[in-house]
Design goal:
- There is one protein chain.
- The protein has 232 residues and is α/β, with parallel strands linked by helices.
- 37% of the residues lie in helices and 11% in strands.
- β2, α2 and β3 form a beta-alpha-beta unit.
- α1 crosses α7 and α7 crosses α8.
Length: 232
């Protein structure tokens, strides 16, 4: 590089354990991080405050919120009146694509991130997708990420002109949830600021029973770390 300013990265940030850890990894690698969160009509809107808190705690260069309403389409327990599954075991969770899958969500999110990257001059986009410790979501798979990266470099002015090659970074994709918890602790993420629950209580507290809460609890237990959000 011809100047001393850090490379820029766009980091998708929901305020959850995975995206917060992903941001911390990007910061550790020396990126100036431009965080992007989405207010899309999600049931667990409380994550917006978590994202703002995490961006501040981890020293993001900027934090923006894109607002649109995926309730227009519904089709997911997170964007409609469909019930969020509760009290499922791992075999039930791994039995197909869950109703909490939001149609095309990561494709939409990454498209917004791509636009933000073009404007900021970022060459890296960090997304906290994970394909190991169960997600069941088709848009968390490595082949989807690779295909999007190919498309991104065909679709953008920077890609066509050859000034910037966009790289989609997925540092968590082969980590277990316990690995992610350990990494978050090692990197100094304030886990009390994160939010994972799909169906929070009226006060914003985690329900403790949805798939996301169950997987979070399992990850903390296997990592031997106490979850500051755990219900006593």
């Amino acid at each position: 590089m011809t100047h001393s300013s850090p490379s820029r990265a766009v980091c998708l940030l929901s305020g959850g354990l995975d995206s917060s850890t992903c941001l911390a990894i990007a910061r550790k690698e020396g990126f100036a991080c431009y965080c992007l969160s989405f207010d899309y009509g999600q049931r667990h809107h409380v994550e917006m405050q978590a994202a703002a808190n995490i961006a501040r705690q981890l020293g993001a260069a900027e934090h923006r919120v894109a607002r649109f309403d995926l309730r227009t389409f519904g089709g997911s327990a997170l964007t409609s009146d469909l019930a969020v599954p509760k009290d499922r075991d791992e075999s039930q969770m791994s039995g197909g694509i869950p109703i909490t899958y939001v149609p095309a969500r990561n494709t939409i999110f990454l498209s917004f991130a791509l636009a933000y990257a073009e404007v900021t001059g970022a060459s890296s986009i960090f997304i906290g997708v994970n394909a190991i410790d169960y997600s069941g979501y088709p848009d968390c798979r490595p082949e989807f990420i690779a295909a999007f990266e190919t498309m991104a470099n065909l679709a953008t002015k920077a890609g066509v002109e050859g000034t910037t090659h966009i790289k989609i970074r997925t540092p968590l994709i082969e980590m277990t949830k316990a690995d992610i918890v350990r990494e978050a602790v090692a990197l100094g993420v304030d886990l009390s600021l994160t939010h994972s629950c799909y169906d929070p209580l009226p006060g914003g507290q985690p329900c403790g029973r949805c798939d996301s809460c169950i997987l979070r609890r399992k990850g903390f237990a296997e990592a031997g770390v106490s979850d500051p959000l755990a219900v006593p």
